[in-house]
Structures are given as C-alpha cells and as structure tokens.
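**Sequence, structure tokens**
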Amino acid sequence: MSTITTAIKTFIADEDGVTAIEYGLIAALIGVVMASVAGDVGNKIKDAFTYIAEQFDAVPAAGA
C-alpha cells in the first residue's frame, strides 16, 4: 500500500509535464504573433513597391 501512495505522491509532485505544456503554449503564442506581424510587414512591403512603381510611371520617358 505504501508503494502506491509513494507513486501517487511522486506523480503529483512531478512538474515536468506542466513545464512542457507551458513551453508549448509560449511557442504557440510566439508563432501566432510572428504570423500576424509577417502579414503586416508583407502588406507594407507591397505598398512600398507599388509606390515605387507609380513613381517610375510618373517620370516622362527620356526620348519623349
């Protein structure tokens, strides 16, 4: 009987699984933040290239 009690107490005191879950949640949160930031940065880069292309279109041709 004491072996079962000792095993249960050891299982309850073991925090390795909890730590792994916490690290997993932190990693998932970081991934979500990175995905949202990447989308925003991608849109800003697209806007920058669109602006540059419009500026090239506004410049008259050299031979015209």
Q: What stands out?
A: Residues 7 and 13 are 10 Å apart (CA to CA). The helical segments are 2-13, 16-58. The longest helix spans residues 16-58. The mean pLDDT is 85.
